[in-house]
Amino acid sequence: MSSAQGFGSNTPRTKLTQSQLNAILLRHLAFRKSQPGGVRANLKMRDLSHLDLSGIDLSDADLSGAKLFSARLTGANLSNANLYAADLRLANLERADLRRADLRGACLRGAVLTEASMVEVDLRDGTLLHYDSSGEMTAHQYENAVLTSEMTAATIRGADLSRAKIANAFVMQTDLTDAVLRGTKFMRANLTGSNLTGCDLTDADLTEANLTGATLSGAVMTGCAINRTNFSGATLIGAILDAAQLRAPNLQAAVLAKPLENPDDDLRDLLVAHAAWIESGGKEGTRADLSTLDLSGRKLDGVNLSAAILNCITLRGASLAGVSMAIADLSLADLRKADFTNADLRGVNLERATLTGTNLTGAQLGPVHIQTMSGHVWRANLQRARLGMALLRNADLRKANLSGANLAGADLRGANLSEADLSGADLTGAALDGATLDNANTAEAIGLPT
């Protein structure tokens, strides 16, 4: 066996070959199954760099201080594992199970953790370790021995970090798009420049965290503690915030949705120019761009905003009954409790939009057939949209992309979901009496009646 210098330690690590590792894994598997000859895997301070551990079961194993640089751990089971001060730089942990793992002081710089389960993982400070004369691992006794956990430049898209402990950690320039961060502890964490688009930060603790330059478009922040949080230059356009949070003085340093200076006159002019743009096929007028505006509570019944740009718009509680918004871009929009009764939303883009409690009764969300030689079909995109408790009774959702959407408690009675993509959607408690699901893709959907 060769040796490699340990990360965060003065002691070299023993290098394992793939065959040696496989032998340890077999004994650990026997241990997990309570079979004769089984031994819990002890890989502390071992060098496992570049090895393939895809799909292996190392739950409860000791990997403290291990070097897993660029190791392949896709789909691995590391639940309850001890990864204290482990080196996981550039490791591939896509879809890995890290629930309740001890990652204190670990380095995950550049690691891939897309769709990993990291519920209740511990990423707080760790202490540098070394072996003493008896061969036991102990803490160094000199100053600056604390090792801060790091996830800088990691890719953690769609991962579940609910109730994780990430206090004081470095999470800079990290991609946390669509991650579940409910109740996660980020106190004093450095999230500078990170992407938290579409994240669920419900009841998370961001006290004294640094979010300078971070992107939180479409993030749900209800109940999130933001005391003394640094939001300098952070983008919160389209973020879902409580009324009390919006009054927080530190939020003024963030980039927020802005109201129109003269809403009645400005809106009228925009709608007139947009109507001319539609009627002339784009030769006259101007395509409406209402992105990032706050039009909460506005009465816009029956307006024609087909193909308009409404990215990150706030229309909370607005009245939009009978509107025409075919092929409009409403991605990351805040549409909570808005009224879209009988609206024309064919081919609309509602990706990551929040429509909690929104009334879409009788709305048209089917496809648009583009008049071209190819006969292209433009489907409505509701991927990862939040439609909890939304009213979708008798709505047309044919061929709609609802993959990963939250439809918990939604009223879908009489809705047409033929050929819709419901893969990974949450339909827990949804009312589906009389709904049509012919040829719909329901792979990995939850809450569907059996």
UniProtKB/TrEMBL annotation:
Domain of life the protein comes from: Bacteria
SUPFAM superfamilies, A to Z: Pentapeptide repeat-like
InterPro entries: 5peptide_repeat, Pentapeptide-BTB/POZ_domain
Pfam families, sorted: Pentapeptide
Protein name, UniProt field: Pentapeptide repeat-containing protein
Organism, scientific name: Azospirillum griseum
